[in-house]
Write a structure and sequence with these properties.
Its cofactor is Zn(2+). This is Putative Zinc protease pqqL. InterPro entries: Metalloenz_LuxS/M16 (IPR011249), Pept_M16_N (IPR011765), Pept_M16_Zn_BS (IPR001431), Peptidase_M16 (IPR050626), Peptidase_M16_C (IPR007863). The N terminus is likely disordered. It is built from 30 helices and 23 strands. The longest helix has 25 residues. The strands form 4 sheets. Strands 12-13-14-18-15-17-16 form a 7-stranded mixed sheet, sandwiched between helices. A 6-stranded mixed sheet has the order 1-2-6-3-5-4, sandwiched between helices. With 926 residues, the chain is an alpha+beta fold. The N and C termini lie far apart (66 Å). 39% of the residues are buried. A hairpin with a 4-residue loop joins strand 21 and strand 22. It has 4 domains: 214 residues, Metalloenzyme, LuxS/M16 peptidase-like (Cytochrome Bc1 Complex, Chain A, domain 1); 193 residues, Metalloenzyme, LuxS/M16 peptidase-like (Cytochrome Bc1 Complex, Chain A, domain 1, 2-Layer Sandwich), CATH 3.30.830; 216 residues, Cytochrome Bc1 Complex, Chain A, domain 1 (2-Layer Sandwich), CATH 3.30.830.10; 181 residues, Metalloenzyme, LuxS/M16 peptidase-like (Cytochrome Bc1 Complex, Chain A, domain 1, 2-Layer Sandwich), CATH 3.30.830. The structure holds zinc ion. Zinc ion binds next to helix 2. The site of zinc ion has 4 residues, from helix 2.
């Protein structure tokens, strides 16, 4: 029997752990693990979140680092081949089988290859033992029975080349220059998983077969299974299926490679004409410690505290009228190949590299000189503990994927996985004893002067003004020799709300039993829809809407309207400014975000049960006491403007701005951002609009979904929502009349230097908004994905991953279907023709039976899991209320899905994929 009850010994944890008392961290007793005679390892755990599902990982301690000069790119190529024919599932049968049983499959979505590992991921339904057995067979096939047929290899070359093409651009060009430096010119620098073009196009099939037999072998493999399964059963299956795996006779040694630290310092500056941002990064590399003992665990807690404290400091620096940087950071984290890294990074406004860099570096120096304060540390310990407690409360509702990833790290890196109960106890017992000096000491330990790389990245236009190594070193010296002041941790002890609100009352209650919801009306007119659930142990999600939005303001005020919330939400709240508010809220499990969209305004958020009242106070304050801060406003606008300066360098931004402008008929609200538009944002106007939007609570509907009882939540609703001001204004949003242009035309954008193209095809027109029609449209989207993947990827080998998306609206009754893909510029016409040919086939013959089975099965499986989440219910209820649609639609979904016929898809594609309104957008190199 496998222990379901987790009872680790907590006694040893009561002791204060000091470095001479290292103990090995235990393995979570809920995990069943073993090693077969051939070296194959397994990790199995029962977990019922989500129910009737399990995640299977087949992990390989083999990746691109093992490739010899003739094999560059073949570890990743091999991963693709796992989906193109195995002993028991030749050709595409594997994907067909899984899709037919409701498993969504996509390009690389279910596997990845990196330097040191390759991991195959198989999420499968477990309510049918047949599928579980076959799932294990698939993993067994991958471990040593991938067919690697010559014909299939040759077909896949095109797909891999397209995947490589998608990665091309400014980022990749700069990376090819600086990665060898960051990797200390080690073997890693020459082993990027995507590989080398000449090899991918011309390697002999025999070469990849050899790579397969050399490295896919039981002593480098493990199977991880977490889910709604019988552990004993699975173990039996694994023993039966994997014991006969053989290690090759003259198996080469699996060397552990590393990035050698030689104590030297390096500097590299790279520019590119398509790059849009200016960034300086200083990386200080260190050997990474193990994560095996109680001492290791304690060390990691110190880093957690350090990083969080540092991040609060840095985010405060941004809260000024002219912030020294756009983004900044200073932290200690994992690097790769057995290294960790302390990094200082600043993304800056053009021409302000020195200022931005010095600001972040000064903060690091400040810690070296003065450290953090005791009050900062105490607050952070409390915050960290609150999060740990919350994670502990949800331990039985933790998603299987989280566990799988823990065991993956255990297998690949030997990282201990003691289990949530042990971890929680460790935090509770050890965190309070971590002293301020210990956390502060990390600054000198990690932010060191050797093994330090300085990297500068900028647009080509700035090439002549960029610093050289000597200049950056001078900046560092200047910071160190400047008088730095200690940080003043100003904390307010005022209560969150200055005045207690006078509660309203619940005036009526309506119960909708079929959905388990209650609808309350408060005395000021607010409606509250409550759906208590037990999907999580301690999670309450809420949302709200009121009609109006920015549609009610003229185009001249649009910029202020659309930017009102970002400005106000960053300016503090009630009695607290933007620096005080995060401190007041530290340790609270609360998140809150007001919004003003085109047609609605509202406040969304989440809270733990204990912090629900705090959340409700914040909601109340966002109605009654919003703040706007001149410095925050100026800071946001300056940073926003400077982020636009180099926007036109980026081919993808230019393309997406063009697409959006044309689809919006060049309406000023749909064209891309500009300095001129940024200049139209007015602070008083933004505040007026915000206040106007939240002036009348009477037409708001709130939704609460999660782990609460109606009786316990009601007093908060009456007090903090029922007290909100109401003027019984009758408002409706305005239709701005922005429509996609009619007719057929083509827009070609020429931008960029790489040999790559992007295609987006847009179909649009009038729509009949009905539940049945919507279900058919959603199915059409999935059918299109299947057909286009088969045609453009598998048959033509011309696209890595085609996408299709369908959207429809009720008012106005319109739809859009968009198909897009990246490809070689020479293939654009051919691939558009192939796409249209697939559409024509759908219009003539309807959907293939096997495609329909896949779509219905996948959609059912997705809904089955989704409908057991709070997020699903919040979204569903808000949408149905907003559109005045039937709340019972939910119950007819499955029936409608099952009843879709090939003829329905035929009809839907004739109606909505007609070429009447058809726009082709094509991005080509200059
Ligand atoms: Zn790939």
């Amino acid at each position: 029997m496998v222990a379901q009850e987790i009872k680790p010994s907590t006694q040893s944890l009561q002791l204060k752990i000091t470095p001479d008392q290292a103990e090995l961290l235990p393995l979570d007793p809920a995990v069943k693990t073993g090693t077969l005679e051939n070296g194959f390892r397994y990790f199995i755990r029962k977990n019922i979140e989500p129910q009737k599902r399990a995640t299977f990982y087949l992990a390989m301690k083999a990746g691109s680092i093992l490739e010899n000069e003739e094999e560059l790119g073949l570890a990743h190529f091999l991963e693709h081949m796992a989906f193109n024919g195995t002993k028991n599932y030749p050709k595409n049968e594997l994907i067909n089988y899984l899709q037919t049983n409701g498993v969504r499959f996509g390009a690389d979505l279910n596997a990845y290859t990196s330097f040191d590992e390759t991991v195959y991921q198989l999420p499968i339904p477990t309510d049918n033992p047949e599928i579980v057995k076959n799932g294990i067979q698939i993993l067994r096939d991958w471990s040593q029975n991938i067919l690697l047929a010559t014909e299939e290899i040759n077909k896949e070359r095109g797909v891999i080349m397209e995947e490589k093409r998608l990665g091309k651009g400014a980022g990749e060009r700069m990376q090819s220059k600086y990665l060898p430096v960051l990797f200390n010119h080690s073997r890693y620098a020459e082993r990027l998983p995507i590989g080398k073009e000449n090899i991918l196009l011309s390697f002999k099939p025999e070469t990849i077969r050899q790579f397969y037999s050399k490295w896919y072998r039981p002593d480098l493999q493990a199977l991880i299974v977490v889910g709604d399964i019988d552990v004993e059963e699975i173990e039996k299956l694994i023993i039966a299926k994997f014991s006969d795996l053989k290690n090759p006779k003259d198996a080469p040694e699996r060397k552990e490679y590393s990035i050698p630290l030689n104590g030297s310092n390096q500097f590299i500056s790279v520019t590119d004409k398509e790059n849009t941002s200016t960034v300086i990064q200083v990386l200080m590399k260190h050997d990474a410690p193990d994560f095996k003992t109680t001492i290791d665990f304690r060390e990691s807690l110190k880093k957690v505290l350090f990083n969080n404290l540092m991040s609060s400091r840095i985010s405060e620096i941004r809260k000024q009228a002219d912030p020294p940087f756009l983004q900044g950071g200073s932290s200690i984290g994992d690097f790769m190949a057995g290294l960790e890294v302390a990094s200082v990074v600043a993304s800056v406004k053009p021409g302000q590299l020195e200022r931005g860099f010095k600001a972040v570096w000064t903060e690091t120096e400040r810690i070296k000189k003065f450290g953090f304060t005791q009050t900062e540390l105490d607050r952070m310990k409390n915050t960290v503990l609150v999060y740990q407690e919350s994670s502990f409360k949800e331990r039985e509702k933790t998603h299987s994927n989280n566990y799988v990833n823990e065991y993956l790290a255990l297998f690949l890196k030997g990282n201990a996985s003691p289990g949530k109960e042990y971890e929680y106890n460790f935090y509770k017992n050890v965190l309070p004893g971590i002293m301020l000096e210990e956390v502060n000491a990390l600054a000198n330990k990690y932010f060191t002067e050797s093994n330090r790389d300085i990297l500068v990245m900028a647009p080509e236009s700035q090439k002549d003004s960029l610093p050289d190594e000597q200049t950056v070193l001078t900046w560092i010296k200047e910071v160190t020799s400047t008088k730095i002041l200690a940080y003043d941790d100003a904390v307010s002890d005022k209560p969150l709300m200055a005045n207690e609100p006078i509660p309203g009352k619940v005036t009526s209650v309506k119960e909708i039993k079929s959905l388990g919801i209650k609808e309350l009306t408060l005395s000021n007119g607010i409606k509250v829809v409550l759906k208590p659930t037990n999907f999580k142990n301690d999670e309450i999600l809420f949302g709200s809407f009121s009609p109006g939005g920015n549609s009610l303001y003229s185009d001249a005020k649009y910029q202020s309207a659309v930017n009102a919330v970002p400005i106000i939400a960053s300016s503090g709240l009630g009695q607290f400014n933007s620096k005080e508010l995060p401190k007041v809220l530290s340790g609270k499990m609360v998140s809150i975000s007001p919004y003003i969209s085109e047609r609605y305004e509202g406040i969304n958020g989440s809270a733990s049960h204990a912090d629900l009242e705090t959340a409700m106070k914040l909601v109340n304050l966002f109605f009654t006491e919003p703040r706007v801060d001149r410095n925050i406003f100026d800071g946001l606008i300056t940073n926003y403007k400077s982020s636009l300066i180099n926007r036109s360098n980026s081919p993808s931004s230019v393309f997406s701005d063009t697409v959006s402008a044309i689809l919006g008929s060049y309406h000023v609200r749909r064209t891309g951002p500009s300095i001129e538009k940024a200049n139209q944002i007015s602070m008083p106007e933004a505040m007026d609009i915000y206040k106007d939007r939240f002036a009348d609570a009477s037409d708001f509907i709130f939704f609460f979904v999660g782990s609460f009882k109606v009786d316990s939540i009601q007093p908060f609703l009456e007090k903090y929502l029922g007290s909100l001001p109401s003027i019984n204004r009758h408002e409706q949003w305005q239709d701005l009349g922005i429509r996609i242009p009619k007719g057929r035309f083509k827009k070609v954008v020429k931008k960029g230097s790489e040999d790559k193209a992007t295609v987006q095809l847009v179909f649009s027109g009038d729509y009949k908004y009905r539940e049945k029609e919507n279900v058919h449209m959603d199915a059409l989207e999935e059918i299109l994905k299947i057909r286009l993947t088969e045609r453009l990827r598998e048959d033509e080998g011309g696209v890595y991953t085609p996408s299709a998306s369908v959207s429809y609206s009720k008012n106005p009754s319109k739809y859009t279907i968009s198909i897009s893909f990246g490809c070689a510029p020479d293939n654009v016409d051919k691939l558009i023709a192939a796409t249209l040919d697939e559409i024509e086939k759908l219009q003539k013959n309807g959907a293939k039976k096997e495609d329909l089975i896949k779509v219905v099965s996948e959609s059912k499986r997705t809904r089955e899991t989704r409908s057991k989440t709070n997020g699903f219910w919040l979204g569903y209820l808000s949408a149905q209320y907003q559109l005045h649609e039937d709340l019972d639609e939910l119950f007819s979904y499955e029936k409608l899905l099952e009843n879709i016929s090939s003829g329905d898809i035929k009809k839907t594609s004739i109606s909505y994929l007609s070429m009447k309104n058809f726009i082709q957008f094509i991005l080509l190199p200059e």
